Amino acid sequence: MAETLETDVIVLGAGAVGENAAARVVQGGLEAILVESALVGGECSYWACMPSKALLRPGTALAEAKAVDGSRQAVTGSLDVPAVLKRRDSFTSGWDDAGQVEWVKETGIGLVRGRARLTGERRVEVRDDAGVRVGIQARHAVVLATGASPVTPPLDGLEQVEFWGTADATSSQEVPPRLLVVGGGVAGTELAQAYARLGSEVTMLVRHGLLEMFPRPAAELVAGALRSEGVEILTGTTADRVFEDASGAVVLALPGGELLYGDRLLMATGRRPALDGLGLEDLGLDPHGISCDDSGLVAEAGNWLYVVGDAAGKVLLTHQGKYEARATGAAIAARARGEIGFGEPPRWSRYAATADHAAVPQVVFTDPEVAMVGLRPDQAKERGIRASETSLPISVAGSALFADGYEGWAQMVVDEDRGIPVGFTFAGPGVAELLHAATIAVTGEVPLERLWHAVPAYPTISEIWLRLLEKYGL
Length: 474
Hints:
This protein is α/β, with parallel strands linked by helices. It contains 15 helices and 21 strands. It has helices at 16-27, 42-46, 49-66, 81-91, 98-107, 166-171, 186-198, 216-228, 318-336, 355-358, 377-382, 397-402, 435-443, 448-451, 464-472; strands at residues 3-12, 32-36, 110-113, 115-120, 123-127, 133-144, 148-150, 178-182, 201-206, 232-235, 241-244, 250-253, 259-262, 264-267, 271-273, 305-307, 361-364, 369-374, 387-393, 409-415, 420-428. It is globular, with a radius of gyration of 24 Å. The N and C termini lie far apart (69 Å). Its cofactor is FAD.
């Protein structure tokens, strides 16, 4: 061992989630060291949230201009692909993490680069690419913020074919003439539309339905928009095998003999917690079955190991992972000071990620957008809630002003026994900006009788709130 360090808290993974955990620990008066084998800032900064949205936004801005008479006539060209990719690159800082490293330093957090492995209670060994090893001993806690890794389903021939994962698609410097997308979740759907608008001929192969985790009317609006832009969506089917033909094209063979041809294949089939190779098995823990409480504490390991973000496997969303990390960092610092114990922290305290259970906001940044928070009607009923559903098209003065021929849909789910909303979904152009108000209503458990007094400004799309409450009966 070339060097041995000591600190209060070790955080494995210097993505947005790990950074938040370490920052809260330092704000709480403790020392922290981040360990990272790749770029500081993680997937969201370089290969997920930021570059994917940067690829989507120019196409959406162009579509918005074309959707309004008067500005439509001023649009004389199509997207400038090199400019779109250059702007995307700017959001990743050209895949250079110097700025993130400087932030870590200024925040007072230590940084060790390399691959980490747990070697005992509160002990970590880090090995860099040159084989140099560093041992780190934590006085209080180790936090696993290692994110998630792609799940690639078994597909005959895939090992012999070059294919993209989502990170390849968000960082590519080329726009393939033909793109095959396997997967109909958020990432696959967003990237399908982004590349279609950049000029690719896109075909999607979806095992079940597009955006399966969202209400069907919302998902159907997105599917209709993609199809109108030339995206072919094949649902309820999978490929039997994949191969390259003599011309170098990627070919997906479907049941029944149909062949799909592409210049690139994107496998966007989900992600799972990245906990393999960390030494958890040596500590008697199952990396595929690890669980934690709302403070992130892994109780079966004792009172020192925490897991947050995608690694925790609860809600694989960056903003929710950062929220969990803030709660975990605050809990670790408070426990180190003796202010709270190691039992389950109180719901809705700053030491508990309670919103994971009841008020998770998420957005699909396609055009139209889908924004959802809380529970769908079926989820509410599964939890024993006597729930009602109110839904209607988004057709208000604000939406008519936003775009000619605006199409949208809104849903409200109500706990009838408590008289509070437990879920909202909005679908349509520009609806992401409605989501935080809905998140506040669900998180704050605002009674509908009080929510009725939250008057939406006229003429905005937010008037849909009034229409939902009126249809509900208020």
